[in-house]
């Protein structure tokens, strides 16, 4: 019976990553601008641990950090996800490969929300373009 239980658990452990999905969202901005927001989002060590990052291909692999239970201090559950940016015309498609989204955590939704917040922060930080001087020939 114990061997059967071990085999079942090992089978589940191998099969779970196969349930991962790629979630896609399109933005009306160039991928270079969106990549800056993705990198800003991933730079938060409380939420993410970047395993791989490729600026040229605009993709990264990262672990998502979540506290498991409040009564287990310092314990964390980490899941590896992936993000890739794909140019779509004048816009950019954000592709999030997530192995987990459930009632307690939504890795894909949390990541997208944080990227959107980073985009807003970057846009708010950009100074207004200076006014062009008047044309002296007119």
- Mean of the pLDDT scores? 77
Give the quaternary arrangement of the chains. Answer: single chain
Number of DSSP helices? 3
Inertia-based shape: globular
The radius of gyration is 20 Å
Number of strands: 5
Description:
The protein contains 3 helices and 5 strands. By secondary structure, the protein is of the alpha+beta class. The chain has a 5-stranded antiparallel sheet, with helices on one face. Helix 2 crosses helix 3 (107-125). The protein is globular.
Short structural summary:
By secondary structure, the protein is an alpha+beta fold.
Descriptive terms for the model:
138 residues; alpha+beta; five-stranded antiparallel β-sheet; 33% helix
Reconstruct the topology from this structure.
Elements: H1 2-15, E1 21-27, H2 31-42, E2 48-54, E3 59-67, E4 76-88, E5 91-98, H3 107-125
Antiparallel strand pairs: 1-5, 2-3, 3-4, 4-5
